[in-house]
Specification:
The protein is α/β, with parallel strands linked by helices. It is built from 15 helices and 19 strands.
Length: 418
């Protein structure tokens, strides 16, 4: 295992409720680094990790920019030394990029420019950039009226994929979702009208690229100030949650030089710096890997790509920002990583739908090297999952009230490391 020459610089992780935050805290905490977490509330799984030195409450999605900067100024003062700042969501990644000049006075940052961050957070701008640089991507449209929807439907081949331009959108039956596979013109029009009724119809429509979950390829890496990739690896999705249209629930490392080369070329072209999580779908119709989305941050799947010497994206970022050389690292071909709860739900759905047999499911679990929740040295985050599920289902109002309270009076708690 690679030993760090210097682990004395603390880290502040701007946590989302995703499991990627838990992975960052564990990876850096196990290396002896003092990790401080910022959470929307103290019931998030990452806030309960034994590797968190101290936790703070703040909601960047509702806090004004000035208030958020003042909050992080106060966090820096309480830590007492310059810390590495790591974002884990599009909201926090964009916040850091847009306020890098101010934050750099008190934090060490690895972030792309605000222009590049905004481009990758926006699916429309990402598509336009890919078209400009001749990077393969799915055909995309962004209808703004009923007439434009009907014009698109008149020439489109269904099914098509609907996404939110900047995140979630209103799907059928009034549910918020990130991705929908739409089967016909009527269904597409219903989704458009739901979103148009709430204001500007902030949706995009993409061509559907046929293929299973395993046609989706990922690249996770870290790029230095010269846009050189200091650590990077590729892999495939094996299952997703929600099924066929969500985040990775079971993934496998697999070398793909075409995906790696295409990604590095794109990052060099835009002068990218920082961690990156990018996804492609292989289109068997023309043999090309088409970019789906690019996230200017550490992705929630980054621990799939942990190397044999312990290196991962979070550690590469830390070592680069603290002046240490990042050693060469190889990720084992065939290494698997799982989000146990999500994959169980996805597998059960596919078994009931007749898409997966029990035997095939059991076979797919062979080679899993790491999970998110059943971790022997850090089980506390697992215990928060039932409450998290209840709050997601019934507690939207409670979360809003908690966020407002946190914005008015940031809370700080101490946790003991065994």
């Amino acid at each position: 295992m690679t030993r760090m020459e210097n682990s004395s610089v603390p880290v502040v992780v701007l946590i989302s409720s995703q499991h990627g935050g838990v992975g960052i805290i564990r990876s850096l905490g196990r290396a002896g680094i003092a990790v401080f977490g910022v959470h929307q509330d103290l019931w998030e799984p990452a806030a309960c990790s034994r590797f968190v030195r101290r936790t703070f409450c703040w909601d960047f999605s509702s806090g004004a920019t000035g208030d958020s900067l003042a909050f992080l100024h106060d966090v820096a003062a309480q830590i007492g030394q310059k810390a590495v700042l790591i974002a884990t969501s599009d909201i926090t990644a964009l916040f850091v990029a847009e306020n890098a000049a101010i934050l750099a006075r008190e934090y060490l940052l690895a972030t792309p420019s605000a222009e590049v961050a905004r481009c990758f957070v926006s699916k429309r701008q990402t598509f336009e950039l890919c078209r400009e640089l001749s990077i393969p991507t799915a055909g995309t449209a962004w209808p703004q009226s009923r007439a434009e929807v009907m014009k698109f439907a008149g020439t489109a081949r269904f099914p098509v994929v609907v996404k939110g331009e900047h995140g979630e959108f209103w799907g059928q039956r009034g549910k918020r979702q990130r991705v929908a596979i739409v089967g016909d013109e009527k269904e597409l029009m219903e989704i458009f009208e739901l979103n148009a009724a709430s204001g500007r119809p902030d949706i995009i429509v993409q061509e559907y690229i046929p293929g299973g979950d395993d046609a989706i390829w990922m690249f996770n890496g870290y790029f230095d100030a010269q846009s050189h990739c200091l650590f990077g690896a590729t892999g495939r999705k094996l299952r997703q949650f929600p099924p066929h249209r969500g985040s990775t629930s079971l993934g496998i490392c697999a070398r793909n030089d075409a995906v790696a080369t295409q990604t590095k070329r794109l990052m060099q072209a835009v002068g990218y710096r920082g961690p990156l999580d990018i996804g492609y779908r292989f289109d068997a119709r023309d043999g090309r890997y088409k970019l789906l989305d690019a996230n200017p941050r550490i992705g929630s799947t980054f621990r799939l790509f942990a190397a044999e010497n312990g290196m991962d994206v979070a550690r590469a970022l830390y070592m680069d920002l603290t002046g240490q050389s990042v050693p060469c690292a190889e990720v084992s071909e065939g290494r698997k990583w799982i989000v146990e709860t999500n994959d169980l739900a996805s597998s059960w759905w596919q078994i009931r739908a007749g898409e997966l047999s029990v035997g095939a499911w059991l076979g797919s679990l062979r080679g899993v090297r790491e999970g998110v929740w059943f971790v022997s040295d850090d089980l506390a985050p697992l215990g928060t999952l039932p409450l998290l599920w209840l709050r997601k289902r019934f507690g939207r109002a409670a979360r809003s009230a908690s966020a407002s309270s946190s914005a008015a009076d940031p809370a700080v708690t101490e946790t003991q490391n065994p």
